[in-house]
């Protein structure tokens, strides 16, 4: 999953569409928190990917796993259509892809290919077992050594300082007092 290299994975419940290409959502779960500082239950807005080229935006009421990154103070969804919508019962995740392409892809782990089914009502979509997909994504995130809990304000400021001046040595214990 290439988006994990630049974006944080978050599960949200979409609550509204305040203006074109913007969605309002409530954080349900934070899987990786390299930049994402909101906590479960918090409300926020994000810019969803373009709906060109037959992409579909999440609708209010959808529970979705999104890859998000901050740009100039706003959250932006990854543009490559990388959202996984929780389907009706909550046991499956819907993803826009051709079933044959997923089954033939060496990039998709075998355990996910085995649990992949064509969507019963939407051609051009597949569904994955939610437990297997979440376990896979957690393993990718853990393997990359990404933080999994939102940082406090002090930690975020300290990390920003470290990124701007990489030679400056900061001790976390000094900053958290």
Jot down its keywords:
single chain; 177 residues; alpha+beta; OB fold (Dihydrolipoamide Acetyltransferase, E2P); 2 domains; five-stranded mixed barrel; 5 helices; globular
CATH architecture of the largest domain: Beta Barrel
- Order of strands in the sheet with most strands: 1-2-3-5-4
Q: Distance between the terminal alpha carbons, to the nearest Å?
A: 37 Å
Q: Report the strand count.
A: 9
Radius of gyration: 17 Å
What is the tally of helical segments? 5
CATH superfamily of the largest domain: Copper binding periplasmic protein CusF
As for the number of domains, it is 2
| Overall geometric form | globular
Strand content: 25-35%
Given the helix and strand composition, which structural class is it? alpha+beta
List the helices and strands and how they pair.
Elements: E1 8-19, E2 22-30, E3 43-47, E4 63-71, E5 74-77, E6 84-86, E7 92-96, H1 99-104, H2 110-114, E8 117-118, E9 125-129, H3 130-143, H4 153-164, H5 172-175
Parallel strand pairs: 3-5
Antiparallel strand pairs: 1-2, 1-4, 2-3, 4-5, 4-6, 6-7, 7-9, 8-9
Could you give a quick summary of the protein structure above?
The protein has 177 residues and is of the alpha+beta class. The chain has helices at 99-104, 110-114, 130-143, 153-164, 172-175; strands spanning 8-19, 22-30, 43-47, 63-71, 74-77, 84-86, 92-96, 117-118, 125-129.
